[in-house]
Amino acid sequence: MTWETQKIAIVGAGVAGLCAAVYARTCGFDVDLIEQHETPGGLATRWRRGDYAFETCLHWLLGSNPDGRLHDMWDEVCDTDLLQFVYHEEFVRLETEHSEVLRVFADVDCLEREFLRVAPEDAVEIRQFTAAVRHLTDLPLPDPSADWIERGWTMLRMLPEIPLLARLSRLSAESYGARFTHPLLRRFFGEGPSARMSVLALAFSLAWQSQHNAGYPIGGSQAVIGAIAQRLGDLGGHLRCGAVVERILVENDAAVGVQLAGGETIRSDWVISAADGHATIYQLLDGRYTDASVESVFDRYESFPSYLQVSFGVARDLSTEPGYLTIVLDAPIAIDPETRLEQLSYRIFHYDPTCAIAGKTAVTCFLPTANFGHWTALRSTDPARYHAEKARIGEAVIAVLERRIPGIRRAIEVIDISTPATVIRYTRNWKGSMQGWLITPETGLGAIPATLPGLDRFIRVGQWIQPGGGLPSGLMTARAALKTICRGAHVPFRNRTHTLEM
Ligand SMILES: Cc1cc2nc3c(=O)[nH]c(=O)nc-3n(C[C@H](O)[C@H](O)[C@H](O)COP(=O)(O)OP(=O)(O)OC[C@H]3O[C@@H](n4cnc5c(N)ncnc54)[C@H](O)[C@@H]3O)c2cc1C
């Protein structure tokens, strides 16, 4: 067998699987990329209803700035010139139902001025936080695909900031928020799915916003996915949608291909799983390749919650409203038996003309819940109540916005409500998680091993091996996987522009 004939089967065409397929083709491997859904993208998706497109995934893409971190790596998997980025003045706006407002600006100097204006009593803490954000702007990211020389450089660059990184990574956003006295500042840090994340993750996201390296691409997540799929097509990669991988075939403790639902088998020299982390280990591989360290991840790490999304198309120009608005509620809303939300976050897509024609606006509201079991059970056992519950929540979400933007209800033309059951159906992610593992004080920023003990010629990529998830986790872990495979196959790793010696 020569390396030119080697083939890689890749399970799952989310961003991670697509990036892995592009790198694999660039390195000269044959590729079969297999996706269970009818379209690629996984969580990075949007859907059309009538005149409107409803985005679910993308708020911002790290690497949007041609001079910033990660941009060159995105260039390796797609033509970034195809993407047009928008930079919001405000990262998010928090409002109470009594007109109290906190504008969280993307620019760190504006953010500091606004926080000091709103909460002078918190001046010391505010200045400490914004100083930390400024320190992080120039720091490189831990990159699992970096070789030891690059890692050495990263460590050297990080050295002066180690005390700051250690201090912030040990604190959850929620506990950090408790240092502030202003209620909206406390809430900015301490509510929502990111509250249990290490505050370091939040500080990094603000640093990237401030650097204009985390823009929103017009066309949303599918613009990015489309650009990567286009590169894969140009390279002759084979993407097969609507095919479910049922098991990863193993012979003599080495992966030798995959078996699809219906029985068809695809033989390959390597298998990459870019599918859900739990199902890969415990279903596709029957739990045969685990040990205490693999299992401890599922015991110790906390996953991002799942979510409902209420999306509605409004026949009205909402361009004077903030793009991302969080409303702190007077009375919490019950989402399911275990979940009550004290605030609702709306994304008002007036900045993306692909979401609606001029004069109309797509609006989405994201409602986190960890109670995925309630929604999957309801959908399968009591469809009428499932639909009634969706309608109840949709009505509550609209009622809150009607109080903020009077008359909006009358202008709503389309309503669409998805639940954790929808997320599981379309992506098969464990517990319907929106983003894999949270970065917490316990996990730190480090990646989880991509291989499994005792199994050869198999490697994992994507959000389940890089705490924090996000599209960059797919890119970076895919690059790292192909470097490992190239090393094993004794071929040079190639990115788009040059050959790297192993
Ligand atoms: C509401 C929301 C907001 C977000 N905001 C951002 C943001 O602003 N910026 C950012 O960078 N990230 C964001 N994310 C996170 C980001 O979308 C995900 O972390 C990322 O898309 C995960 O990519 P992945 O390829 O690792 O996994 P997935 O997208 O889950 O892809 C896995 C793929 O495998 C397929 N699959 C699963 N099992 C099988 C099987 N047996 N056979 C065949 N195929 C299979 C699935 O259908 C899916 O397509 C957000 C996510 C959500 C939900």
TrEMBL record:
InterPro entries per record: CrtISO-like, FAD/NAD-bd_sf
UniProt xrefs under Gene3D superfamilies: FAD/NAD(P)-binding domain
Organism superkingdom: Bacteria
Record-linked Pfam families: NAD_binding_8 (PF13450)
Name of this protein: NAD(P)/FAD-dependent oxidoreductase
Organism: Sphingomonas qilianensis
Lineage summary: Bacteria, Pseudomonadati, Pseudomonadota, Alphaproteobacteria, Sphingomonadales
